[in-house]
Amino acid sequence: EPFVADEYIERLAWRTPGGGSRGGEAFDPKRLLEEFVNHIQELQVMDERIQRKVEKLEQQCQKEAKEFAKKVQELQKSNQVAFQHFQELDEHISYVATKVCHLGDQLEGVNTPRQRAVEAQKLMKYFNEFLDGELKSDVFTNSEKIKEAADIIQKLHLIAQELPFDRFSEVKSKIASKYHDLECQLIQEFTSAQRRGEISRMREVAAVLLHFKGYSHCVDVYIKQCQEGAFLRNDVFEDAAILCQRVNKQVGDVFSNPETVLAKLIQNIFEVKLQSYVKDQLEEHRKSDAEQYLKNLYDLYTRTTNLSSKLMEFNLGTDKQTFLSKLIKSIFISYLENYIEVEIGYLKSRSAMILQRYYDSKNHQKRSIGTGGIQDLKERIRQRTNLPLGPSIDTHGETFLSQEVVVNLLQETKQAFERCHRLSDLSDLPKNAFRIFSMLVEFLCTEHIDYALETGLAGIPSSDSKNANLYFLDVVHQANTIFHLFDKQFNDHLMPLISSSPKLSECLQKKKDIIEQMEVKLDMGIDRTLNCMIGQMKHILAAEQKKTDFKPEDENNVLIQYTNACVKVCGYVRKQLEKIRNSMDGKNVDTVLMELGVRFHRLIYEHLQQYSYSCMGGMLAICDVAEYRKCAKDFKIALVLQLFDTLHALCNLLVVAPDNLKQVCSGEQLANLDKNILHSFVQLRVDYRSARLARHFS
């Protein structure tokens, strides 16, 4: 523990008799002082003893340090001597090693020619046996030494090729025959080993055959036997993948060039198995069933490319991507060259059949929409004047638009886009996709939607027809829904195929043109439909409104709150509002409702100016306009409501007292109106001709 002086003194005082109770009766300071003096002397003696011991130890340490330093110097000298000896030994070893290497080179220089001479002597011995026509050597007669025999006959075969034919024709023939026999034996041995599953024996035989001309035949045999029993299921693509996976694990243990053997196996599978399978599947439907042919082509090409993706995992050489692409192309080249023509032909016939089947189900004979000078002239006149040219056609409420037909057409086109993406060459993809899109525009937009719009336009009755049924808004509703589907397919399936090509602008322009063309006809049809609505209101007002409504014979006996004509017109308008809201969406609803509201206001305004009003009749007119204003609120268009508010204020001029006319005319709602409008309403009063009223208003 650390030394603390205060605690040490306290313990010393406590142990001393008479020193632990300071100030008490037993406290003895003399005794305590004496104890302190004695203890100090003891400490001094102890300090001197320790100091002498320290000095002795220091002297001993200095002595040992000198001895140790001397010993280190001696060791350093010994180390230097040893290092010099080591350098001398290293130089001596290097010298000896140089001599040994030189001697080895000399021995090798002597031994190599000797070995060659011995080998040449053996080959000459074997060659003599072929010259004599009798093979006596054990290497040729013992079947277990086929490996050594193969090495010898391979060398003799090379030598024989250098010999002149006229002198050594017979021996060359014998060597070639033996060469061929051994080659066949080796291949047979390889085949047997493969059937037994002896990988090590297969590797030995393959290594021997590597220097023979029949090595490729050995590979062919291996590939052929690998495929035995491999294609027993219906899925040839899955079988091929499993086979290649199995062979990939084995081929490296057998052949020195496994990537070449595996590539040859894959080439054989593609050019034999897959090509035959694809041909059987496609040729059956190529001329008889275009739909099944295209489905099979897409399916087979997809499965083949998927198989190719799996095979990319294996080592097939340097450029395996190009290798596999060429194999796929070799199978499908004859089918892909004219794919788009088959696709367009099928899409055209299929789309025409879908449309025709729909019109047949409606017992409708499709009218031909004429083209040429007369039709173009009619179209321009109709667009500028909005006049119905030609007789109106009764469609019996049929819009001739079918969501089922549209879904079928879009589904066929979607599948065509998918096939186009998969089967078209990258350079031809945008062009082919544009052709498919053109088919969709022709049959969906032109033959179906545009025809329905033309038929709907022709079915809109004239504005003066009575009890006309207005079905064009149903056409608008369905056309709007269909176009949303068309636009979705354009963005989801066509855009990815053409987004980075010049065809993008062409497709967008074509889409824009067809939209504008349909919008013109929709606008025209909606405009004429609104005219018909106003015409129906005119008929209701003409039939139901009586002159006596606003100039009753008995001013004091008027019991109705508003006229019957007003009730029927408001009921008709509310029905049309519901139709319009159900037929359109977005800003189009507000635009059409504003136009209808403005025309509705103009009709009521002009209608009210056809009558003369007594005081009670004016009150009834105000009640009618108030009801019309309630109907105008249902439009939820600020301008329409403002117009009817102003009309309601104008009707107040029919009942206000002559003295208050000027005050009413200068009110908030009438102050900004033309004075002639105000005057025209005041003139409708029965009492207008009285001098008093004329004077007050002038």
TrEMBL record:
GO terms (BP aspect): exocytosis; Golgi to plasma membrane transport
Signal peptide positions on this chain: none
Gene Ontology CC annotations of this record: exocyst
Keyword terms of this UniProt record: Coiled coil, Exocytosis, Transport
Lineage top rank: taxon: Eukaryota
Span of domain Exocyst complex component Sec10 N-terminal: 29-137
Domain Exocyst complex component Sec10-like alpha-helical bundle: 148-697
Record-annotated membrane-spanning stretches: none
Positions in coiled-coil regions: 40-78
Pfam families, alphabetized: Sec10_HB (PF07393), Sec10_N (PF20667)
Alphabetized PANTHER family for the sequence: EXOCYST COMPLEX COMPONENT 5, SEC10
Assigned protein family: Belongs to the SEC10 family.
Protein name: Exocyst complex component 5
